[in-house]
């Protein structure tokens, strides 16, 4: 019998809306749900442990037979030792519980990349300390874009769930960042080197920076995650991406609500085979591929991405692909780049409802370079091909009226097979135009206001 990965299952769920579901596959999925342990404080989520390679059986996910309750000082003192004790005791077949109604404080960077066959049941409330000096020197450096994480969780066959809350105590970071853009703001949830697992039913609040960074991981499902946290001062919470995936494959992100101020989901270099579905994104910069091609000498690949059934409100963009041009330029002090190589290919956005979104669709291969003449002179060496965006409905904001979308390649020779169709999006005054520059027009079923040097 053929076994399927999380991504294949999620694709089947998406396809089921349009066509008859493939029943043998769905039955196979259900047959491999982990057994729910009786008498547990909360049920394990119903996720199979995905195979590393489609076609191979799911690795065994043994029942969790042991319980470890995490203790708390309860007075704001660091509970990291108690957490590590419980996790070590229950690793390899146990169930770690952060009890409901209990507050936990974390003031120590926790390296949790040694996990194996363990469930982490977060029913209580976990908050990170506001010691910005400690965290800047101790949080885990993840290399990419100076990213650091409060903790890193990785290993095999791990489920994190429970209905509780993880709070990054972000306000102090939002205020600090306003006075120094080079401070290292920790990412709330670091999924680093996780192979086979699920993260579900959690509330993530007030992250200093991104909410989730998923790197070096495979076969992971994120489901029913609530993300929110706004600044209460004049200093806006910046770079609070919902999820950033990096060097990861076979990832599903689904059925979640994100209220933030940067990308809802962002596919960073070497994100492959990712399904994103059933998200309600509000206040964001959209669901983005990139930015890519930022660093000279690096090869960035993003392929086989399927984004389905998204509601996007109060955002700058709905669907977005951002690629830096062929030579470096500076967008701001801490955001500059261009000149990297690679490829964006096989990207589908299907079914998105927008409301108060500046651009329903934005594809740019001139990211960070406002001078398009200069961008055309040094086209990107990172190609964009086989992109389909279809089934968009709703109303944009008035920002670019009558323009509702933006399609700008750095040269038609490095942008291929772009299909934009079934777009029922208008501006508040009824405008439905797209800016199109150097993009092959053959697959565009939209009203382009300018087609410059484009060809099929
Ligand atoms: C940091 O947190 C502690 C404990 O919750 C609190 O007493 C203190 O006022 C906070 N400091 C700042 C600068 O927010
Ligand atoms: C991922 O794995 C590579 C290779 O082992 C390592 O160099 C890198 O630091 C890891 N983490 C991230 C975030 O890339
Ligand atoms: C990383 O931090 C260094 C030093 O603070 C800074 O010069 C550089 O621009 C930062 N890089 C990115 C990609 O943010
Ligand atoms: C989603 O998670 C919340 C707790 O964070 C829980 O109350 C709710 O029942 C979950 N929803 C589903 C559909 O599982
Ligand atoms: C679309 O996503 C929403 C959650 O935002 C979910 O409730 C709904 O069932 C999904 N619809 C389809 C057709 O998948
Ligand atoms: C949705 O986003 C808007 C704009 O950022 C914000 O004002 C509003 O509070 C958000 N809604 C929720 C429920 O967080
Ligand atoms: C991404 O994948 C490409 C092609 O395999 C590889 O050359 C490159 O080093 C990878 N980049 C990272 C950051 O892992
Ligand atoms: C394109 O990506 C989808 C997932 O979105 C995948 O099912 C399909 O196999 C990919 N096509 C190719 C040719 O790799
Ligand atoms: C979008 O923003 C408006 C104005 O801030 C707000 O009333 C509305 O609730 C937001 N939409 C969502 C889904 O939060
Ligand atoms: C844009 O770049 C071109 C080519 O280098 C240059 O001639 C032009 O002056 C630039 N335009 C602006 C507004 O800087
Ligand atoms: C393009 O504009 C024409 C005239 O306003 C309109 O009839 C047509 O529906 C538009 N096409 C698309 C794809 O929006």
TrEMBL record:
GO BP terms in the entry: cell wall organization; pectin catabolic process
Reaction catalysed by this enzyme: [(1->4)-alpha-D-galacturonosyl](n) + H2O = alpha-D-galacturonate + [(1->4)-alpha-D-galacturonosyl](n-1)
GO cellular component: extracellular region
Keyword Magnesium recorded: no
Location of the active site: 285
Signal peptide residues on this chain, from the entry's feature table: 1-19
Keyword terms of this UniProt record: Cell wall biogenesis/degradation, Disulfide bond, Glycoprotein, Glycosidase, Hydrolase, Repeat, Secreted, Signal
Main enzyme class: hydrolase
EC assignment: 3.2.1.67
Compartment list: Secreted
First-listed, main subcellular location of the protein, grouped into a coarse class: secreted
Molecular-function GO term, any one: polygalacturonase activity
InterPro entries per UniProt: Glyco_hydro_28, PbH1, Pectin_lyas_fold, Pectin_lyase_fold/virulence
Keyword RNA-binding tagged: no
Pfam families recorded: Glyco_hydro_28
PANTHER family with a match to the protein in the record: EXOPOLYGALACTURONASE X-1-RELATED, PTHR31736
Family: Belongs to the glycosyl hydrolase 28 family.
Protein's UniProt name: galacturonan 1,4-alpha-galacturonidase
Source taxonomy: Eukaryota, Fungi, Dikarya, Ascomycota, Pezizomycotina
């Amino acid at each position: 019998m053929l076994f399927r990965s999380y991504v294949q299952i999620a694709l089947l769920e998406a396809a089921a809306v349009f066509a008859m579901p493939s029943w043998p596959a769905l039955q196979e999925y259900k047959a491999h749900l982990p057994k729910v342990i009786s008498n547990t404080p909360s049920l394990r989520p119903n996720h199979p442990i995905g195979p590393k390679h489609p076609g191979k059986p799911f690795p065994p996910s043994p029942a969790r037979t042991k319980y470890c309750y995490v203790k708390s000082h309860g007075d704001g003192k660091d509970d990291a030792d108690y957490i590590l004790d419980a996790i070590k005791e229950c690793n390899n077949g146990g169930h770690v519980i952060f009890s409901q109604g209990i507050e936990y404080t974390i003031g120590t960077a926790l390296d949790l990349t040694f996990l194996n066959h363990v469930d982490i049941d977060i029913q209580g409330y976990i908050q990170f300390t506001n010691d910005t000096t400690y965290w800047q020197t101790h949080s885990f450096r993840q290399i990419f874009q100076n990213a650091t994480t409060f903790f890193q969780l990785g290993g095999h066959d791990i489920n994190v769930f429970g209905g509780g809350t993880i709070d990054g105590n972000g306000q102090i970071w939002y205020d600090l960042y306003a006075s120094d853009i080079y401070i290292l703001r920790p990412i709330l949830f670091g999924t680093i080197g996780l192979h086979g697992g699920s993260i579900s039913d959690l509330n993530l609040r007030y992250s200093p920076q991104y909410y989730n960074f998923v790197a070096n991981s495979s076969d992971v499902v994120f489901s029913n995650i609530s993300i929110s946290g706004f600044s209460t001062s004049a200093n806006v919470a910046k770079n609070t991406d919902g999820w950033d995936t990096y060097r990861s494959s076979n990832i599903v992100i689904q059925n979640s609500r994100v209220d933030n101020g940067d990308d809802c989901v962002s596919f960073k270099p070497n994100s492959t085979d990712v399904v994103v579905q059933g998200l309600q994104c509000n206040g964001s910069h959209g669901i983005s591929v990139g930015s890519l091609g930022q660093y000279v000498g690096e090869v960035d690949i993003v392929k086989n991405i399927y984004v389905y059934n998204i509601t996007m409100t109060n955002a700058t963009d709905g669907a977005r692909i951002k690629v830096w041009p062929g030579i470096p330029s500076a967008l701001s002090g801490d955001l500059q780049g261009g000149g990297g190589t690679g490829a964006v290919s096989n990207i589908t956005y299907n079914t998105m409802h927008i409301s108060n979104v500046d651009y329903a669709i934005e594809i740019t291969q001139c990211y960070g370079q406002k001078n398009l003449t200069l961008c055309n002179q040094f086209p990107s060496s990172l190609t964009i091909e086989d992109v389909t965006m279809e089934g968009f409905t709703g109303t944009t904001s008035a920002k670019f009226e009558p323009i509702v979308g933006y399609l700008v390649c750095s040269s038609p020779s490095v942008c291929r097979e772009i299909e934009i169709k079934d777009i029922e999006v208008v501006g508040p005054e009824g405008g439905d135009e797209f800016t199109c520059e150097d993009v092959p027009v053959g697959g565009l079923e939209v009203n382009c206001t300018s087609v410059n040097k484009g060809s099929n």
